[in-house]
Amino acid sequence: MSEAIIELVDLTKKYGEKTAVNQLNLSINKGEIFGLLGPNGAGKSTTILMMIGLSEPTSGTVKVCGFNSTRQPMMVKKRVGYLPDDVGFYDDLSARENLIYTARLNRVSAAEAAVRADSLLERVGLSHAKRQKAGTFSRGMRQRLGLADVLIKQPEIIILDEPTLGIDPEGVREFLDLIRTLSRDEGLTVLLSSHHLHQVQQICDRVGLFVQGRLIAEGTVESLSRELFAGEPLLIEVEADALTDDMVEAVRGIEHVLRVEREERRLRLGCAQDVSPQVARTLVEQGAALTGLTKKQYGLDEIYHRYFEGSDSNDREGSKLAGLKAKAARQGT
Ligand SMILES: Nc1ncnc2c1ncn2[C@@H]1O[C@H](COP(=O)(O)OP(=O)(O)OP(=O)(O)O)[C@@H](O)[C@H]1O
């Protein structure tokens, strides 16, 4: 049976009139990689701060590793490593010296600190640079050193805030592989807050979608996809040199096309079955020159797009979002 390592119950945080986190209920299991997703200002950072005991909830409770983060913050801090999007190091110290310094702050003996530092530098692929000053590190190297830095106290949970920001694609791939391996090999629980849907989809076992302080959906990418796109298992994306309203209407009329979204010269079609030949033929008959046609199953990109359609800031609310918020309010979530 799965064991909850993070438990949020009716967690609420208000800043004056502003409700940053609104009655959040969430359970994260030991060894799970959980993705926190949501637009800016959705309440992700506030939730993380309450989890690690750096912010006090207005009401509700947060328990991490069995400890109440508000009443026993030191117990929680011992067990949780937090990697912010830009880690601060002593730039004049070497990578190894920085790690040993952090270990010593966490009351690890000098001998043990050296052993852990060497082993972690190897683990994150920085052995070759361990005597190099942290100030000379590239962004990707700094993030890998950051990961070693949060792991040196041997936490049970690591929380990563946009950890791959500014890293090149190869570096991102390596970094994500490393996180996945750590979780699988050592049962480490990982909480990843990110806007990079593709990356989240690659490594997270489960994701939670936050909007305006509420968790509006949570589950595996497959279950969210099933929930949102029932009856529309296939997405066809088609691009043409130009699209007219008549063309869009003609495509809408094709059997098994259930939903049509238009984005400049691109159409996204939610379909009950593969009708790409009919779509291509219809557009060509209408005088369009096709510049691209792809088929895919729904992923996190489409899920996110669906949920956050028209809501790229706190102040704009699309109808979909308004509907979901109403649903969330009815369910009291
Ligand atoms: N110290 C504070 N005082 C007042 N309001 C705050 C404070 N911290 C956060 N907020 C507000 O609470 C809301 C949630 O902010 P939070 O930083 O948790 O969002 P987020 O999802 O982490 O956003 P981002 O993706 O931009 O980091 C926002 O409206 C923000 O302006």
Descriptive overview:
The structure is a single chain. The protein is an alpha/beta fold and 333 residues long. The protein has two domains: 4-223, Rossmann fold; 230-297, Alpha-Beta Plaits, CATH 3.30.70.100. It is 38% helix and 27% strand. The chain has helices at 44-51, 73-79, 95-105, 110-123, 139-151, 169-186, 197-203, 221-228, 245-252, 276-285, 300-308, 319-331; strands at 4-15, 18-29, 33-37, 59-64, 67-68, 80-83, 157-161, 189-193, 206-211, 214-219, 234-240, 257-263, 266-271, 290-296. A six-stranded mixed sheet has the order 6-7-8-3-9-10, sandwiched between helices. Strands 2-1-4-5 form a four-stranded antiparallel sheet, with helices on one face. A four-stranded antiparallel sheet has the order 12-13-11-14, with helices on one face. A hairpin with a 2-residue loop joins β1 (4-15) and β2. The protein is globular, with a radius of gyration of 23 Å. The two termini are 25 Å apart. The chain binds adenosine-5'-triphosphate. Residues 15, 18, 20, 38, 40-46 line the site of adenosine-5'-triphosphate (ATP).
